[in-house]
Amino acid sequence: MNVQKAEQFILKTARPIELAEFRCLFQDGPKEAVLEALRPFQNPDGGFGHALEPDNWNPNSTPITTNTALGILFRTGALELAPDMAQGMVRYIRSAQDPATGRWPFAIGSNKDHPHAIWWEENSDSLSGWNPGVSLAAFLVCQGQDAYRETLQRAFADWEQAQNGDAAKCYILACQMLEKYGIGDVVDLDKAWLSIRQCVEKAVCKETEKYGVEYVTTPSWFPKDCLPESLLPQIQAELESLPKMQKEDGGFDISWQWYTPYEKEFAQARDWWRPRVTMEKLEFYQDWA
């Protein structure tokens, strides 16, 4: 993998938010720049929308887009610098919880009114899992919202929900926040990390010929310390695939389509995704090469 070309691709093509995140994580850039780049995506209700999640152009706040913002804030360490932003998120997340199930919807009805990928259309499964609810509940608990401790315990009791890569990342974020905030009396974090590594082992696709070709879960989706030794063959396979996957412009591409009639918007979303995917591959390469 050509690291210099990958970095130059990100610097030349990334949106302000991904650019600020890259500079913060890879170049010791200011956390304040991350906050300023995120503010245009936050709505008056405290949640986030406006295509921060590039496959969902709903300007309204959604739980999944708010979770995307939460992940960026946590990874960069910028969350503590913006109590106003955090309190707005608390307000929105509390309001977005489904009162009947205690969960947060994966997709909401108004997504269909804006360009989107097909998986962001609301359906009967939208309230069936804990993606993104487990990390949203953990955030609330970390912000002193003790009423959500029981909700968080329910989410961690449903380990089968973490068997796919996207959900597993939510459980990882939840544990990372609980650890950082020193909250160890809601769930047993030692057992939780063990279960997470088992879920990651199951989630990672063992058919390595699909890496970069199909939308499958690969080792680069996860932090280094969440990958068990049993996945070393898949880690090595992905490392070896990176030079083939890297494009001439230095970036990496996505491996999915929207399957909705928004060809022009999908092309734009793909351009927004590519620097983010390139960042993911760059971090993976630097951790393991």
Q: How would you characterize this protein structure?
A:
- By secondary structure, this protein is an all-alpha fold.
- It has one domain.
- The protein is 51% helix and 0% strand.
- It has 11 helices and no strands.
- α6 packs parallel to α8.
- The model has no long low-confidence stretch (mean pLDDT 96).
List keywords for this structure.
about 290 residues, mainly alpha
The number of distinct helices, counting runs of at least 4 residues, comes to 11
- Total domains: 1
Q: How many strand elements? A: 0
N- to C-terminal separation?
10 Å
Please provide the ordered H/E string of secondary-structure elements: HHHHHHHHHHH
Question: Structural class of the secondary structure composition?
Answer: mainly alpha
How much of the polypeptide forms β-strand, as a percent range? under 5%
What level of helicity do the residues show?
40-55%
Kindly state the mean pLDDT as a whole number? Answer: 96
Main β sheet profile = none
Uncertain segments: none
What form results from the Cα inertia axes?
A: globular
Radius of gyration: 18 Å
